[in-house]
Amino acid sequence: xxxxxxxxxxxxxxxxxxxxxxxxxxxxxxxxxxxxxxxxxxxxxxxxxxxxxxxxxxxxxxxxxxxxxxxxxxxxxxxxxxxxxxxxxxxxxxxxxxxxxxxxx
Length: 105
What we know:
Elements lengths: L2 H11 L2 E3 H8 L3 H9 L14 E3 L2 H15 L3 H27 L3
Antiparallel strand pairs: 1-2
């Protein structure tokens, strides 16, 4: 199973992945992923379980975190803040597109 062949399948089916799979798919280490869980960026399906699994939607979040970490060399706490900003910007952009679509031409 290669990451290229499974990404779309997992995301389309709303599947789950293990911590090791999330690390392999995102490029982040398992330790970094654990830190992101500690700061609330990632939430395991069952936090009390001995082996964490994550919603496949977190593959996108973890990949974005990897790009931000590589680009800005920041710790998990700063990643959480940056990811929050990116999420808010995307929401505002979507709202702006929706408003523009309603405007008379």
